[in-house]
Every structure is written in structure tokens, then in C-alpha cells.
Amino acid sequence: MNVHDAWTILIACACNLACGLLGCFLLLRRMSLIGDAISHAVLPGLAVAFLLSGQRHGWPIFAAAVAMSLITTMLIQWVHRGAKVPEDASIGIVFSALFALGVILITRIAAQVDLDPQCVLYGVLEVASLDTVPIGSWEVPRVMLTLAAALGITLLFILLLWKELKITSFDPALATALGIPAGLMQYLLMAMVGTVTVASFEAVGSILVIAMLIVPAAAAHLLTDRLPMMLILAGAVGVSTAVLGYAGAVWLNTSTAGMMAVVVGMQLALAVAFSPQQGIAAKWWRRRRLAQRIAEEDVLGWFYRQEEKTGAVERSMEEIAKEAALARADLGSILKRLKKAGHLEAMAPDRMSLSNQGRQAALSVIRAHRLWESFLGEHLHLPADHLHAPAERMEHYVGPKLQQAIAHQLANQQLDPQGKPIPGLPPPSAEPGP
């Protein structure tokens, strides 16, 4: 890696970090599209600043960006509240109109000012490190100074207003009740978004800015529910995007900013797939484990009912498969797990029975089933032939506390609607019915 490569990656890291950190607060406020709108809508401000100052850099540009950020936010609120337009539609209306106006203005003044409209959209990250300024004995890319300043201001903004940003992001009404100006914090955040957007435009273009304002925060939010860790993860996604995106762009000889946008999208896809709580893999695994638990409890309940009905404790594989209506292949894995858990005992090579531990687990399932049948019959007045099916579904979700609450509602009733004893209660004085 040469110096040019290192500076290019550092420039991208500074941009990605600043955008990713602000994007976390936009995401929590459900305002990610407003960040997108601001990144488009600052273009008219840039064009006007070019015309008035004749400069592509400096305070006039940042002042125009901040002003357009605030104007965009106020226009969106005005269209939403004044014209009674849905908020998502008002965002689309405002940023589309302002972005179109900005493109027209930039195109018209391109002959007068050294400005390429394509650079605003796609950036010139590949050559940004060539425009340098001397800092002591170092030749530092000019855009690196701008982005470093933007990143520093962003970090300072978050540190100084951490408490206010946090509470207004999660509960604006509570913040207002505590005397924290939620509206002012929103406008300050929008001003910061505009500043970082303009600082990033020349180097990376609007495509990467939009991606980094939304995607790292979304990926981090899938991985954690804590704001400090979310900021750290968003920053990590931004840095890895810069490194991997640049490597991919060099390998494929393509747009650096475009490849970084692709890489951050791939990282979001990985977060969607493997998030510990919300990921596709985690949900699939939880559903699989739930299905296995339900099948195991069904088999335990079947053993208990057979013991209760015939008094015999041992059952063969053929009997279980036939009478429990389970496929032999599925039954084999279920019985293997139950034996491993100590719920079944092998009495002979092909005959099994409930262990004491398994009998207690089965008793809990039967108790939940019969309590729920009794509750449905007594409180919802369902017919007796309509009780078994819903109770069979619910028996797997009625834990000990809920069982106790249902038993209390039933005044410790000892028999279910079919006259069978409810386990865990004193045995009835009379012999239960069939």
C-alpha cells in the first residue's frame, strides 16, 4: 500500500465515521430519509454559494449547507403539517424539488465555475489525495483537513450534547417536559448533517454520503439495542467499508465510492442474516428449537396419557410411531433427544419408558393442557368437543406461573371438563370418568 492508497482510505474513514455517527441519531428518530433529503437539498445552497463567493471551499459553502439543512427541515414540516401531506410524501416532495433545482443551477454555472456536476454525485475519491496542502513536513490532502474538521465537530457535538441527543431521540415528549428543547436539538442535528454532507460531497459524492448516513446505523441497530455500542458498531462498519471498499475498487478497477456503497450494503445483508436477536438465522434457529420442544413435549404427554390409560409404562418404537401419529424418522431424533436429556429410559433394546424426571416434565404439560381446557370451558363456555384442540396448542406456552394463576381462577378445580384429574392437585375422592 502506497501513500496515495493510505490517504484515500483515511479520507473515506473520516467521511464514513462522521456520517455513520450522525446516522445513528437519525435512525432512532425515524428520520433517516430526512438525512437523505438534506444530502440532496443542499445542492441549491452550494450553487448559490458558488455564484456569490466564486469559491468551492470555505465558510460560505458551509454556511449555505447549514442554511439549506434548516430550510429543508422547515419545508418538510410545513408541507407535512400545513398542507396535511403524509410525512414520507412531504420528504419526497421537498428533496426531489430542491435536488432538481440544485442540479439545474450547478449545470448552468458549471461553465463559470470550475465544477463538474458528476463529481457532486459520484465524488472524486480516487484522486482526492492528490490535491495537497503543506502541514509542516507533511503533504496532507486538502479534503482530509475538511473531513477531519467535520469529524471533530461531529464528535464534539455528540459529547457535549450526549444527554440531550439521547433523550430527545428516544422520547421527545419527555425531553420537552424536562425542559430540553427537542425542536432545537432536531434543528442542530440537521445542521450537523448538512455540514458533514457538504464536507464529504467533493471527495466521495452524494451516493456514498446517503449510504453512510443510513446503512451503518441500520446494521448496528440490528446488532445491539444500546446506543453507545450502536455508535461503536456504526463506526466499525464505516471503517471496514472504507478499507474493503477501496480494496474491491482497486481489484475490479471500478468507482471507489460506488464499491464502498456496495460493501456497506453487503455488511447490512450480513447483519440482517446473522443478527443475534433479529437476524434470519437466529429466528430460524428459535423456530426450529420451538418446534423440537413442542414435539418432545407431545411425546412426553403421550407417554403420560398411555400410563394413565393402561397402566403400562413401557412402549416400543412401533407403538409410539403408530399411536402418536409421528413419522418414524422424526420420532427417532425426538426419542434420542429425550433420552439424552434424561426424560426417557431404555427398558429393552426397543422399549422405553418415562424416567422420574421425564414424568415430572410430562406432568407439567398435562397439567397445563387440562387447566387450559377447564378455563376455556368455565370462562369462555366453549363446547366440550371444542376444548382439546386449542388446549393442545396452548399447553406448550403455559408455564408454572400462568398455571398457578389459572388454577386460582378455577378455585383449585380438581377435574377437567372430561372428568380427568388435573395433575399437581389433590386426587379426587371419586374415580375419574373416561
What attributes does this structure have?
two-stranded antiparallel ribbon; mainly alpha; single chain; Arc Repressor Mutant, subunit A; 3 domains; ABC transporter involved in vitamin B12 uptake, BtuC; 3-stranded antiparallel β-sheet; disordered C terminus; 5 strands
Task: Write structural notes for this entry.
With 434 residues, the protein is mainly alpha-helical. It is 72% helix and 4% strand. The protein folds into three domains: 3-215, ABC transporter involved in vitamin B12 uptake, BtuC; 282-354, Arc Repressor Mutant, subunit A (Orthogonal Bundle), CATH 1.10.10; 356-434, Winged helix-like DNA-binding domain superfamily/Winged helix DNA-binding domain (Arc Repressor Mutant, subunit A). The chain contains 17 helices and five strands. It has a three-stranded antiparallel β-sheet with strand order 3-5-4. Strands 1-2 form a two-stranded antiparallel sheet. Helix 12 crosses helix 15 (356-379) and helix 15 crosses helix 17. The longest helix is centred in the middle third of the chain and has 42 residues, at 182-223. The N and C termini lie far apart (82 Å).
First and last CA, distance: 82 Å
CATH architecture of the largest domain: Orthogonal Bundle
**Binned strand content:** under 5%
Helix and strand run: HHHHHEEHHHHHHHEHHEEHHH
Main-sheet strand order equals 3-5-4
Total number of distinct structural domains: 3
Category by helix and strand content: mainly alpha
Q: How many DSSP helices?
A: 17
The CATH C-level name of the largest domain is Mainly Alpha
Helix content range of the residues, please? over 70%
Taking all Cα atoms into account, the compactness measure Rg is 33 Å
Q: pLDDT average, as an integer?
A: 83
CATH topology of the largest domain: ABC transporter involved in vitamin B12 uptake, BtuC
Largest sheet: number of strands, sense, barrel closure: 3 strands, antiparallel
Unreliable runs: 425-434
